[in-house]
């Protein structure tokens, strides 16, 4: 499903966007108004909270980038994918697995994150 892959690539690009205004525009474009992001460390409900979560992760890992690690597996209104976070040209420090739920209009409604590898 190329549409799902393209949306997930845009999702990861938003996590990498350092300019606050551009990041917020990406969040507003990608996510529904009542969207939610949940992982073991955070519950972010709504676009403001999602944007703040991305900013906090960037502050914690300022020189790292998110990248897709493998294919996006999608059907109906769901997609699952593995991502990595680490130096641009280096080994991933954090690895996770997300399941995204798409809304009727093709935007992100919910993302459920799981952390497979985290720093000690």
Automatic annotation (TrEMBL):
Instruction: Using the record's annotation, list all stretches that form the SnoaL-like domain.
Output: 8-107
Task: Kindly give the SUPFAM superfamilies that the UniProt entry links to this protein.
Answer: NTF2-like
One Pfam family here: SnoaL_2
- List residues traversing the bilayer: none
Kindly give the InterPro entries that the UniProt entry links to this protein. NTF2-like_dom_sf, SnoaL-like
The source's domain of life comes to Bacteria
Q: What is this protein called?
A: Nuclear transport factor 2 family protein
- Which species expresses this protein natively? Actinomadura miaoliensis
């Amino acid at each position: 499903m190329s549409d799902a892959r393209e949306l997930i690539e845009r999702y990861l690009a938003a996590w990498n966007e350092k300019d606050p205004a551009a990041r917020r525009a990406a969040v507003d474009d990608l996510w529904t108004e009542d969207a939610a992001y949940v992982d073991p460390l955070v519950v972010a409900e709504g676009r403001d909270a999602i944007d703040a979560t991305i900013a906090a992760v960037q502050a914690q890992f300022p020189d790292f980038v998110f990248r897709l690690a493998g294919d996006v597996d999608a059907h109906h209104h769901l997609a699952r994918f593995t991502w990595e976070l680490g130096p641009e040209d280096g080994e991933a420090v954090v690895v996770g697995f997300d399941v995204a739920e798409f809304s009727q209009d093709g935007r992100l409604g919910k993302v459920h994150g799981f952390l497979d590898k985290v720093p000690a």
